[in-house]
Amino acid sequence: MFNAGDKVLFLSCEDDPRAVGKTGVIIDEVPPGPLTEGRWTVGSISIWIAPVLVHAHEIRKIG
Asked: Which of 1, 22, 28, 42 is the most exposed place for a label (fewest CB within 10 A)?
């Protein structure tokens, strides 16, 4: 389970493959629901990569 502000590493990213290997921060204040099809919103990845939606198996919590 992730919480808002958790730093994560991208293992894969169906939404934007450029994010793989980079880190980002969980934006969601609550667990994802049907609107995002169970995907988490992750931002602060890069100036060139907008926030993305990812499944929990695509990211790993770090630090």
From this structure: 1
Q: Could you tell me the two tokens for 8? A: 């994560």
Enter the pTM of the model.
Answer: 0.93
Q: What is the tens place of the pLDDT at every residue in 28-56? A: 999 999 999 999 999 999 999 999 999 99
CB contact at 8 A, 25 and 43 = yes
As a whole number of angstroms, the distance between CA 16 and CA 34 comes to 20
* Tally of residues, the chain: 63
In the chain, what are the helix, strand and coil shares in percent, each to the nearest 5? 15, 30, 55
- In what helix (H) or strand (E) does residue 22 lie, and over which residues does it extend? none
53 C-beta neighbours (distance < 10 Å), count: 18
